[in-house]
Target: Chromo domain-containing protein
Amino acid sequence: MTHWPVPTNLKQLRGFLGLTGYYRRFVRNYGKISEPLTQLPRKDSFHWTDAATQAFEHLKLAMVTTPVLALPDYTKEFVIESDASSKGLGAVLMQDGHPIAFWSKVLSLRDQVLSTYEKELMAVVLAVLKWRHYLLGRHFIIRTDQQSLKHLLEQRVATPFQHKWITKLLGFDYEIVYKVGKENLAADALSRKGEDNNADATLQALSVLNYNWLAKVKLGWLNDPAIQALIQDLISDPASHKHYVWHDQLLTYKGKMVVGDCSVLKCMSGNCPKNWSKWLPLAEWWYNTTYHSAIKTTPYYAVYGQSQLDQALYIPGSSPVAEVDNWARERAAISRMLKENLQIAQGRMKQTTLALHRNMKLAPKFYGPFQIIQKIGTVAYKLQLPDDAKIHPVFHVSLLKRKLGQNVTAQSTLPPVSPDGNLQMEPIAVLNRRMIKRQNKAVVQWLIQWSRSFPEDATWEDYDTITKKFPTFEP
Model:
C-alpha cells in the first residue's frame, strides 16, 4: 500500500478509491481526507494537483496504520477474498469484515494467457499458501467472484493445471463462497493495481515465515575444521579438490550443496541426498513442534501461542488421483525417516552429554585455601596464588567459597591442566571391582579413585578403558 503508484488516469484513481472506500468505516475522517480525490472523477475534471497528492499520501498512510489493519484473533473465523484480472492477482485476509493483510501479484506473460477460471484458481491457491500459518488447523472461508470455483471440491479433476494447483490445498479445511464481482472491491482493486503502468504489484502487510536452512548450512561449515581447510584450499587453488567448487560464498560438490556439521540437515541428506532441500521444511516443522525441555513447551507454541496441527497419518489408496496418492506416500515415508533419524541424533547427543557430566563429576569444584589480598570493585577478589599458577588471580565472587572450620582438608596447589585447558586426572587406587552384562557380554569394571579427589568421588570405569588410557597404572 505504501508503494502504490500515483494514478495517471480515471481508471487507476477509481481502483484506488474503490479499495480504500471498502474500509472507510475503519478510517477516521475518511470523507474529509479523500475529498480532493473524490472530486477528480467528475467529468473533465481529472487534473492532478498538490492537494490531490497530499490527500493520496495521507490516505495511503491511514490504510496501513491502526486501526485499519487488525491483529489476527485465532478464536474467530478467517475469510479470504480473492480476485484476478488480465494482468494480476489480489487477495485480502479478513476477520469480521476487518482487514488483516493485503496481497497482490503481477502475472507473468506466460500466465496472462490463462483462462479466467485458471487465473481465479491460481489467486485462491496462492492466497491460501501465503497465509497458511494462520489457516492450518481451522475452518476458513474463501470468497471469489468466479462462480464455477464454488463447486471446486465436487468437480472432476481433468486437466494438468487442476492437478497442479488443487493438490496444494490438501490439508486445509475451507469453504468456497461465491461473491458477485461488484461486491468484491478490495481484491479486485489489488489485482488491478498498477495494471496500466506495469508497476510492481507485490503488496503485503504482514511478515511471513522464511526458511533459514542456508544459514544453518554455513554455520555448520564454520564448526567443521575439515570443511574450513577445504574452503581455504579452494580459495588458493580452485582445482585443488576434484568436483568441489567454492563460488559466491557457497561450497558445492558436483553441483550439490555440501552439508557440514548440522544434525538436522545430515538426517535429511543421508537418505535422500538429491531431494533433501525439497523436504527440508518437514525437518524444520518436526523440530519446531517437538517438546523442548529448556522452555517446557514447543518453539511453535512459544512463538504463536497456539498448539500446532497434528498431521494425520495418510492411508494409502485413499485418494483417487494417482499423483496425489504418490505424493502423499512419499511425504509419509520421508516424515517417518526424518523422525527416526532425528531421534537417533538426539540419542547420540544425550549420550555425549551424560559422558560430559560424568567427567565433570571427577573434578573438585574448589581448591585452596588461598589468601585474599585485594578486593576489586564490588563483586571480584584478587587471590594470592602459587608462583607457578598460570591463571589470572582475580575471580568473581560466584567462583569463590569461604573456608569454614579448622579441620577442613583442602588442596593447596592448583591441579595440572592440558594445553587445551582440561584437567589432567589420573587413577590412584582401585576401591572395588565388579562384573556387569553389556550386550550379552561380561564386562569387568573398577571403582577408580582419581588424583586430587576424595574416595566418595570415585567412579566405575571399564577395565579395558583404564588399561588403555593409563598403561603404567598398577592397582
Observations:
- The two ends are 80 Å apart (CA to CA).
- Residues 366-402 form one domain.
